């Protein structure tokens, strides 16, 4: 649900798609990483996903997965 009700429509769409594709296959560590990513604000998330800004190292692997899934690589 937190992937769908972000506050900005862009991040709603991006994270809904990512969650639908990957959430069921995530292990506990990946779910923890995703939960930490969801705690970030949408403006930062969008800049990281769109490549306008580099994500912090702790989020870089997950942002890379999201970029790949939505075709922003």
TrEMBL record:
InterPro entries named in the record: SDH (IPR005631), SDH_sf (IPR036714)
One GO term of the biological process aspect: tricarboxylic acid cycle
Highest taxon above the source species: Bacteria
Keywords for the protein's UniProt record, in alphabetical order: Chaperone
Keyword Cell wall biogenesis/degradation: no
A Pfam cross-reference name: Sdh5
Record-linked PANTHER family: PROTEIN EMI5 HOMOLOG, MITOCHONDRIAL, SUCCINATE DEHYDROGENASE ASSEMBLY FACTOR 2, MITOCHONDRIAL
Family: Belongs to the SdhE FAD assembly factor family.
Name of the protein in its database record: FAD assembly factor SdhE
Organism: Marimonas arenosa
